[in-house]
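Please, structure for the following, as tokens.
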Amino acid sequence: MAELRHKNNLLQKDIAKMLNVKENTYSKWEKCSNDIPLEKVNILANFYNVNLDYLLGIAKKIEPSEKLKIDYKKICERLLELRKENHLTQGRLSDKIGFFQTTYSSFETGARTPTTYKLLYIVNFYNASMDYVVGRTDTKRIYKKNLSKINK
């Protein structure tokens, strides 16, 4: 996010104002010390005209997105689809990604919306596109960067 902000000659306070948050809140998101809400990630991706995968540092190149909004129903559907494609139960998947099964189950049922960081872990596990999981594109896979820097 910082790279895109710098390329556009913007300050953190400019982006914070656009997102209607405090500057220190945005600063923490940019440093990955706090989880940025999906809605704000989507606003930034649309503002910079980039895909979520690029914005969040998991793809090396910018890909055009077919849709520019998050589809919360698609998140549930696509998480279920990816899990079934990989022949996993919720329990086994939860063990592999380090979430409680009840937490993961609530994402598939729509009882809870996953945080951006939790979705990053899930898309990394599946080598799937964040844009795909949230319904911004129908392209499932990405050429990703190493996600070892994600610390949440």
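Residues 72-133 form a domain with the 434 Repressor (Amino-terminal Domain) fold (CATH 1.10.260.40). The chain has two domains: 2-55, 72-133.
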